[in-house]
Write a structure and sequence with these properties.
Layout (H helix, E strand, L loop, with lengths): L16 E2 L9 H9 L19 H18 L5 E6 L2 H13 L6 E5 L2 H11 L4 E6 L23 E4 L1 E2 L4 E2 L10 E4 L14 E7 L10 E6 H4 L12 H7 L7 H16 L2 H21 L5 E2 L10 E5 L3 H13 L2 E2 L10 E4 L6 H18 L1
Parallel strand pairs: 1-13, 3-4, 3-5, 5-8, 8-9
Antiparallel strand pairs: 2-10, 6-7, 9-10, 11-12, 12-14
Bound molecules: 4'-deoxy-4'-aminopyridoxal-5'-phosphate.
The site of 4'-deoxy-4'-aminopyridoxal-5'-phosphate has 11 residues, from helix 3.
Length: 370
């Protein structure tokens, strides 16, 4: 039985319950607005992707996206908001290139495959101190801060707030005497953060805030002042801060991000997102814990509210689960290729109704196969 979400275009274009890890679900309302802006944007005679990024129309969208981002995160005038390309993966290199000083190391918390990739790139630029790691236990938990070996003289402390592949998440913000740098790609704007602790925050848009092709980078002025000099132009954050769109930005992606930020604002901001995400995650984990048929892979206190990872009794049953879920209108549930199992990504835009539909499906699947 196909289960449609609120919107049906025609039967072949039904929107399904989308649990994709990324690019992930975006609000249907935003998708409809985008559709309505094509092929002509607001009396402009062309769509937004066909005009100059210096046009007054795009300029207004850009300014609004920056303003809404700062407003949602509670960032003051000392913060710069950039929309860059190259994905979060580019930030793995750009951050240490700019900020890993020659006379100091940088602290990295190794909590998953993306943290490890960030560490690899940082090592190209200087000395890295892996202050904590859960790699030996297959990244099933966030290490206890009491065991971290932080260096008080570090250039910064880098961490990955949510581990998309392993389904773990920091439920606290690290305490450090130096600025934090956070890869927030997979839980960005899903809850408020204490921005004063950070020097830089980055997030690929394609999970919680938009389509692939743009990376939001927020950098604080006093941290930016610790930046190294003589860097390649495109990799120097200062160039983008002062350049006022130094080069052509990914206009269509930024235009959609602005709409998603508007949607978050309209739906009550980050406090409301937290409540909505907490409720969805609690319901799904309760369904997993209610039976031995499903087994969560992350340690309980490290469980992610964005990527819920679990196993069934056998790989055959997992393959059958994914296949039958798809036939029932529940898509994107396959775990990352490196770990297998099931991964339900329940980002901001995934509705409580979609989570309820997944829970019902899980109960029915267990009844017939358990
Ligand atoms: N960091 C995290 C936490 C991620 O989930 C991902 C992508 N899944 C990345 C970094 C890499 O992002 P990108 O593909 O945008 O380079």
């Amino acid at each position: 039985m196909m289960q449609s979400v609120s919107y049906t275009h025609d039967t072949g274009k039904q929107r399904l319950h989308n649990f994709s890890a990324g690019p992930g679900a975006l609000p249907t309302e935003v998708m409809e607005e985008v559709r309505d802006d094509l092929p002509v944007f607001d009396g402009m005679g062309a769509s937004i992707m066909e005009v100059s990024h210096r046009s007054k129309e795009f300029d207004a969208i850009w300014a609004s996206a920056v303003e809404k981002m700062k407003g949602l995160l509670g960032m003051g005038a000392d913060w710069h908001v950039l929309f860059l390309q190259g994905g979060a993966s580019m930030q793995f290199y750009q951050v240490p290139l700019n900020f890993l000083r020659a006379d100091a190391s940088a602290d990295y918390l190794n909590t998953g495959a993306w943290s490890k990739k960030a560490i690899k790139e940082a090592k190209r630029c200087g000395t890295v101190n892996v202050a904590a790691s859960s790699e030996a236990d297959l990244y099933t938990y966030i290490p206890d801060p009491a065991d971290w070996q932080l260096d008080p003289k570090a250039s910064y402390v880098h961490y990955t707030s949510n581990n998309t592949i392993f389904g773990t998440q920091f439920h606290f913000e690290p305490e450090a005497t130096v600025p934090l740098v956070c890869d927030a790609s997979s839980d960005f704007l899903s809850h408020p953060i204490e921005v004063d602790r950070y020097g830089l925050i980055y997030a690929g848009a394609q999970k919680n805030i938009g389509p692939a092709g743009v990376t939001a980078v927020m950098v604080r002025e006093d941290f930016l002042q610790t930046k190294k000099n003589d860097l390649p132009t495109m990799l120097d954050y200062r160039v983008h801060v002062e350049g006022d769109m130094f080069n052509t930005p990914p206009v269509f992606a930024v235009y959609i991000v602005e709409k998603v930020l508007r949607w978050i604002e309209k739906n009550g901001g980050l406090g409301a997102m937290t409540a909505r995400n907490d409720a969805k995650a609690a319901a799904l984990y309760a369904a997993i814990d209610a039976t031995d048929f499903y087994n969560g892979t992350a340690k309980t206190d490290s469980r992610s509210k964005m990527n819920v990872t679990y196993r069934l009794p056998s790989e055959e049953l997992e393959a059958q689960f994914i296949k039958e879920a798809k036939a029932a209108g529940l898509v994107g549930l396959k775990g990352h290729r490196s770990v297998g199992g099931i991964r339900a990504s329940i980002y901001n835009a995934v509705s409580p109704e979609s989570v309820d539909a997944l829970i019902s499906f899980m109960q029915e699947f267990e009844r017939t196969n358990g």
